Amino acid sequence: MAPTSPVIEVRNLTRSYGAQPVVQDVSFALQAGETLVLLGPSGCGKTTLLRMLNRLVEPDTGTVHVNGQDVRQLPPEQLRRRIGYVIQQVGLLPHYTVAENVAIVPRLLKADEAQITRRTEELLTRLHLPPARFAGQYPHQLSGGQQQRVGLARALAADPPIILLDEPFGALDPITRSSIRREFRELPELRQKTMVLVTHDVQEAFELADRILLLNHGQPQQLGTPRELLFHPANSFVREFFAADYLSLQLRVLRLHDVLSHQASGIEKHSLNSLKSDSNIIPHTVSIQDALQYFSSISASSGTPSTPSIIWVQGLDSANPDRLVPLTYPALMGAFAQTVQQLQTV
Ligand SMILES: Nc1ncnc2c1ncn2[C@@H]1O[C@H](COP(=O)(O)OP(=O)(O)OP(=O)(O)O)[C@@H](O)[C@H]1O
């Protein structure tokens, strides 16, 4: 299939503050629906780069094109229509209700009032903020997580095809952060969006990114999929940046079909009932991390730690999608270790 033209195309962006170069010669192109995470240590220029995409910061040199048009040529209301923006501090207006905050951009764009009300209610409902309870509340009456969701609803209100997010979960405690992140990932509203997200949290980057751009001192170190950065680091900075999280990132990026594809044994799904294990079927697409959690949950509920638990993996055999392959915890760990070793030596 021929590649379609990029939704965002950044060429040779550079920006300095005084004598300090903050973003140095960054280029990338994003296809529709792609999520790019800008990752790197504090002060490496992530926010400055993000803010150059919607002209909150002007580059010294280089260009940003959105759907083939130079953003410098787009009038401000066109930019607002095309690009939503979510920031860590949320930035809700304290004297506006939740509904009024969400409606800010559509009102600036002079959308129809009935349509704005409908859209606001729809978004609040999708983001688990029932309008009957939340629409009339003020930001100070909400928790941090609820405020964050209102900030996201506000960015989505005019239905822009592009969303920029600057540490959108940064102000939340780790537990709220991880559950909101999961909700965020599963939100149908965001599936079609092209997104650029800034974070310095490696786990967050790996959970949300299609591709990651890792920066250091404003210089791009590597642009690639999480798997490419982990198994084929471009330089020692990339390797060392992920070193502390190496095992957990491997468990997150590798999926059952990556480590089990060589397994030939298996049974037909219809014969499983006779084995009385029909509830322990998982698809081949789950991550190794999720599969390990599944093992812990079934051995905790079975109450018979001496019997090795078996799960059945479905979908490994594309010619026969109903075929199930049995898997034990030790077999999974063995296959995982072997795969990692192979990937590291390629
Ligand atoms: N308006 C400004 N004036 C002067 N220097 C600035 C300005 N904005 C950013 N900087 C400097 O540019 C560098 C990069 O800042 P930036 O906020 O882009 O980094 P970051 O990677 O997003 O950092 P963090 O993860 O800590 O938010 C920093 O050294 C910062 O002090």
Describe the protein in words.
- InterPro entries: AAA+_ATPase, ABC_transporter-like_ATP-bd, ABC_transporter-like_CS, P-loop_NTPase.
- Keywords: ATP-binding, Nucleotide-binding, Transport.
- One of its GO terms (molecular function) is ATP binding.
- There is one protein chain.
- The chain has about 350 residues and is of the alpha/beta class.
- The protein folds into 2 domains: about 10-245, P-loop containing nucleotide triphosphate hydrolases (Rossmann fold, 3-Layer(aba) Sandwich); about 255-265 and about 280-300 and about 310-345, no CATH class.
- It is built from 16 helices and 14 strands.
- It has helices at about 45-55, 75-80, 100, 105-110, 115-125, 130-135, 145-155, 175-185, 190, 200-210, 225-230, 235-245, 245-255, 255-260, 290-300, 330-345, and strands spanning about 10-15, 20-30, 35-40, 60-65, 70, 85, 160-165, 195-200, 210-215, 220-225, 265-270, 280-285, 310-315, 325-330.
- A 6-stranded mixed β-sheet has the order 6-7-8-3-9-10, with helices on both faces.
- A hairpin with a 2-residue loop joins strand 1 (about 10-15) and strand 2 (about 20-30).
- The protein is globular.
- The model has no long low-confidence stretch (mean pLDDT about 85).
- The structure holds adenosine-5'-triphosphate.
- Adenosine-5'-triphosphate (ATP) binds near residues 22, 44, 47 and 48.
Shape: globular
Per CATH, what is the topology of the largest domain? Rossmann fold
| The named CATH superfamily of the largest domain | P-loop containing nucleotide triphosphate hydrolases
Element order, helices and strands? EEEHEEHEHHHHHEHHEHEEHHHHEEHEEH
Q: What is the arithmetic mean of pLDDT?
A: 87
CATH class of the largest domain: Alpha Beta
What's the number of domains?
A: 2
Please estimate the helix content: 40-55%
Low-confidence stretches: none
Number of strands: 14
Termini Cα gap: 28 Å
Strand content: 15-25%
CATH architecture of the largest domain: 3-Layer(aba) Sandwich
Trace the largest sheet across and list its strands.
6-7-8-3-9-10
Rg calc: 23 Å
Largest sheet: 6 strands, mixed
Q: List bound small molecules.
A: adenosine-5'-triphosphate
Number of helices: 16
The helix/strand class is: alpha/beta
Keywords: ATP-binding, Nucleotide-binding, Transport
GO biological process, one term: quaternary ammonium group transport
Domain ABC transporter: 8-242
Protein name: ATP-binding cassette domain-containing protein
